[in-house]
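The following block was generated as part of the benchmark described in Methods. Ligand: calcium ion.
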Amino acid sequence: MSEKMIFFVEDEKHIQELVKFNLEEKGYKVRVFEDGESLLKECKHALPSLFILDVMLPGIDGFEICRRIRQDNHLKKIPVIILTAKGEEFDKVLGLELGADDYITKPFSIREFVARVRAMYRRADSNENNEIEVIRAGNIKIDFLKREVFKDDKCLELSYKEFEILKLLILNKGKVLSRDTLLEKIWGFDYFGETRTVDVHIRYLRQKIEDNDNQPVYIETVRGIGYRFTDKEVDN
Ligand code: CA
């Protein structure tokens, strides 16, 4: 995986050029693809460290590309940013449900765009310097180095953001983290999102780690504030 190689799918020429120029100026490498098919084909030969997917494309759309990335063993751990149209609340939620890690709304300011990409890499870098290797809680085990989460002995499929949230909660076991804190730490202080984004991710995380996500044992909701990873003993 090339260190700062970004694969960018976008069919609009001026956006291709704007993004490529500005990201390359900051030291990233950008490969532009006109459609999802050519992107996925290239992924058989080379891997990026970040995908940026426009939703509206000729052929398969950005959501479908995201879905395929998340189903592919070689690609599924690579972060994905989705470009959605303005005001498409549905797009944001669908993108997150399909495992996108972040979304940028069109039209965007190029400054914000670059800031979001940098924030994504900043978080990825800080993970690599983590010294704690493995944490266990009840029947959940997190391997920070391999970025793998196990429930009993079953490896769970977590998106980049779900993993980050679980990691932050578990490293702060017993402590309540507000939605704003989670947004700031996981999405970056320059993120212009809504706290609902956090709730969507928590919901999906619970479906994966809890026995019954309607009665969560690990991730507790603290009403009006945020979330806490339980510090009670959890039976296996
Ligand atoms: Ca487009």
